[in-house]
């Protein structure tokens, strides 16, 4: 598991209690393949949708 990575996306299979990410690694890309200058311009490619959301 990656250390000290927080995520609020509880619809992801890597999300755990207290907003912790349980993925072994994280892959972030530029949104729409443009150079990012703000966090909103990035996308998490590690996201994997849960079958059911709590």
Structural write-up:
With 54 residues, the chain is mostly beta strands. It has no helices and four strands. The strands form two sheets. Strands 1-2 form a two-stranded antiparallel ribbon. A hairpin with a 3-residue loop joins strand 1 and strand 2. The two termini are 22 Å apart. The model has no long low-confidence stretch (mean pLDDT 91).
Give a summary of the structure in a few sentences.
The protein has strands spanning 15-16, 20-21, 28-30, 42-44.
Topology:
Layout: E1 15-16, E2 20-21, E3 28-30, E4 42-44
Antiparallel strand pairs: 1-2, 3-4
Number of strands: 4
Radius of gyration, taken over Cα atoms and rounded to an integer in Å: 12 Å
Structural class by SSE content: mainly beta
* Ends apart, CA distance between termini: 22 Å
* Order of helix and strand elements from N to C terminus: EEEE
Strand content: 15-25%
- By DSSP (H or I, 4+ residues per run), the number of helices equals 0
Low-confidence stretches: none
Taking the sheet with the most strands, its summary is: 2 strands, antiparallel
Overall geometric form: globular
Helix percentage range: under 10%
The neighbouring-strand order within the major sheet is 1-2
**Integer average pLDDT:** 91
